Amino acid sequence: MKWEETLKQGMDHLRKNDPTLRPVIDAYGLPTFKPHGNYYQELVESIISQQLSVKAAATINGRFVDLFGHFPLPEEILSKTTEELRSAGLSGQKTRYICDLAQRVLDGSVRFDHLDGLTNEQIVSELTAVKGIGEWTVHMFLLFCMGRLDVLAYGDLGVRTGVMRLYGLDTLPDKSVMQALADQNKWTPYQSLVSWYAWKVLDNEPKL
Which is the catalytic residue, given 156, 170, 174, 203? Predict the structure, then answer.
């Protein structure tokens, strides 16, 4: 099945089962995220972008790439000194995180060729072993990079705020409240679409 057809199937499922989402889906239409296979680069860029605005992250990522003349392989990253990497605008902490990821890719403790065969939970467990990669980062990776359709990004402030607004909640929902809403409105197996529509309500879709 083509990606667009899969998304439309998800939209139809949510329209049928969740009357609150129905007008939101009609207003915003087809989600714009789609899977791609550049897993390593996405994780490096996600570390670079943590706690930065989109503009600042793009600037630092551009400087990082300029250090090498192309997006660097893990061994190229490790060939640079800490000072050279930090000259791109990376903090000392992010420099350590990126080097940790590069080292793990080289020694085989992080592999990308088998991720497609793992569950979301298994991928979270595997990738959060890397310094600087937490559950939120892996949720974004699953959704925007791997195109996994059943990711409820309950740790993302935008998703929580969007859900609070859509469902008339008095406070930001925590994981248990989000999961209860998911069960009640039959969001599975298309929770990623719910996350995306919650972001669109706030117009602040995150980018890796």
Answer: 156
Q: Could you tell me if residue 82 is left (phi over 0), alpha (psi between -120 and 50 degrees) or otherwise beta?
A: alpha
DSSP 106-138: HHTSS-STTGGGS-HHHHHHHHTTSTT--HHHH
Residues 114-129 pLDDT 10s: 999 999 999 999 999 9
Place of tokens 């996600």: 46
Q: For this structure, is 156 an active site residue? A: yes
The DSSP 8-state label assigned to residue 71 in this structure reads P
The answer to whether the predicted template modeling score (pTM) of the entire model surpasses 0.70 is: yes
CA distances from 114 to 45, 111, 123, 153 (A): 21, 7, 10, 23
CA distance 117 to 187: 23
